[in-house]
Structures are given as C-alpha cells and as structure tokens.
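Hey, weird one. I pasted the Lipoprotein sequence into the form twice and got a warning about non-standard characters only the second time. First submission, copied straight from the form history:
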Amino acid sequence: MKRVIVGISAASAAAFVTAAPAQAAPADPIKALKGQFVAGKGVKFTDRTTLTGDGTNVLILRRTGSFQFGRSGIVASDISAKAGATSDEPAATAIARLTPERTIRIGTTSYTSGGVLAEKLPKGKVWYKDPQGMAAGGSGWFGQIVNVAEPATLQTLLRSAKKSHTTYSGTITFGKLAKISPWFRASLRIWSKDTAVAKYSITMNRDGLPQRLTTSYPATGLFDSNGWEGKTISVETRFTDWGGKVSIKAPPASKVTAKLDDD
C-alpha cells in the first residue's frame, strides 16, 4: 500500500511540474516602446511640476497632453497647461503669465494659443504658428524635460540606471540630454548649464512601457539668476492608454497667424 501511495504522489508531482507555465521573460522596454510606433496610435500623459527651496514647496504647473506616433516615433503632440496653486513665489507668477496655454506640434511646426502670446495675436486669430516652434510653448520651461517616448533617450537612461523591480533610477546631465533628445532641445531652446544634473526615476508597467516618470534638477540649470539659487524643480509624469487612438490635427487655418502685433 505504501508503494502505491508513493507512486501516486510521485506521478502527481511530475504532472504538476509539467503543467506549470513557464515564467515569462521580462519585457524589453526599448522593444516594447518601438512596438507602439503605429500610425494613428499614441499615449496620454499628465505632468505636475513643483518648486522647492527656501522653505517653499509650491505646485506651480499642471499639464495634460498626448503624443501621436508614426512608424518612426513621435510625429505630433498636443499639450495643455495651467497654473498650479496660487502663490507669491516668483515662479508661480511667471507660470500665471504663461498659462493657460495650449500647444499643438506637428513635425517641427507648433501652434500655440493663450499664454503670453494671447495679447499679441491679431484680431480674430487664436493660434500663433511657428515652423520651428517650441515643443510645449512657454510651459516647456517648467514642464517635463525628459521624454521617455524617445527610444534613444529611454535607452540611454536605462543603460546607466540602477534597477529595483520595475523601477530604474539614475542621473543625467543637461548636456547629455541635449545631445540625444530632440524633445529636450525643442522644449527649452536655451538653458544655463550643460553640467546641471537631472535625477530621474522610471517605473514600467507590466508590458515594459513607462508608467511613471519623475525628474528633479536645480533651477539654476535652466535660469542663470540669483533668484533661483537653492531651488529645485521637480516634475512627475504619468502615462496612460498606451496604444490608444490619437489624432492630432492643425487648428483651422482661419484662426492661425504667423505674425504677432509687435512684429
């Protein structure tokens, strides 16, 4: 009887091992990202920017947006920005002047509505067109400067990062970002220090795609002014709806101008 029981137990264990599914290999983030590059598809995101230092911790900017993909990567973006909490902090005052603002960018051409340009638009026009425009209008100065939807940028960040479960953390200089990232260059145009260091943390979802990105860097990396000494800009970005339908179009031509009243 003991032999029968042992035999049954051994057979059952063997069957269980045979039937157990193989452990799935971790998703390759670069391959997963490139797999999203389908015409008419894209991803949505939200940004929250805070300024800390000198005893302050102020939410200065909120943004919502989307990237539209083509076979080679990002082909268009649509970003709306608004000021965060009301504050006497100079940066919050600057943001209030820059927002509310919306920027549509198709290729390298941007269309910006609102913000500091609103009062400079000719009567009847709502959008300012710039063939080599900034990626996110005025809000780009305080928005997310790291774009993990760019394969070369994501690959560089992951290569030098420390990994813990599904989160990658590391640092990168503004100078290195400028070399590899079209988004960084188009968002800022100019900055104060190539040597400024941005800290980053990227958390992936189950498909190996970025779900949450946080960055922080000294404000003096952007602005060469004593008023920014000792202050840090931090941005949290969350990505949703990877692979969803995204269709970004230029505004109606009748509402667009390439000239400002003070030109």
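That's the output from the first submission. The warning seems to come from a hidden character in my clipboard, not from the data itself. Residues 29-250 form a domain with the outer membrane lipoprotein receptor (LolB), chain A fold (CATH 2.50.20).
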